[in-house]
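Would you mind writing out the residues of a protein together with its fold in token form for me to study?
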Amino acid sequence: MKIDSTRFIEVVSDNKVVPVFNHDNKDVALNVLRACYEGGIRSFEFTNRSAQAVDVFKFLSSMRSEFPGLLLGVGSLVEVETTKKYQDLGADFFVSPIIDTEMAAYCSQNDLVWVPGCGTLTEIVTAKRMGASLMKVFPADVLGPKFVKGVLGPCPELKLMPTGGVLPTKQNLEEWFTAGVTCVGMGSQLITRQLIENEEYDQLKRKVENMMEYVQSI
């Protein structure tokens, strides 16, 4: 069932963290998704960063019955045709590192949840006017929490998701949420290469659980 922007914002506002991940091995991707879900995650972004990404996402989508209440989205989208492929596979939301006008128009016309990447206040407001309900602040480690605080000063109604370099530590999360973000996107800092190579999925689950405790305590 397709979700709307209102439901999407409710989930990410409540859950606070959107893991960002890609892997060519379907079993690895499923194990990571399961570990994150069991750790408390309810929105997950699988990125379109390899030739196998569509097939892996199709597999994950086919396993959705194992994860009730999960929003499964796709990231690293930069144009319409690929967006359509993932729409057909049932993606709940569509994340881009840029603002692509054709993609924006398509998502708006088809009531798709679009989360574009923005690096200035002008881009953020432009994206909102083009139909985005949540804007991805990217790259987050370059822009920083002070950027978010500065943006929300004159425009407190904006909903922002910093992605790229966000750390799963209480201190870093506190900096971002104190600045006023709606949620954070988190990739390799959370789902590390070492955890994947060593198949330490139980440890990943515990890591996610600890991080979610941090978020709830802020």
Remarks:
- Strands lie at 17-21, 43-47, 71-75, 93-95, 113-115, 117-118, 135-137, 160-162, 184-186.
- The radius of gyration is 16 Å.
- The chain has one domain: 5-209.
- The chain has a mean pLDDT of 97.
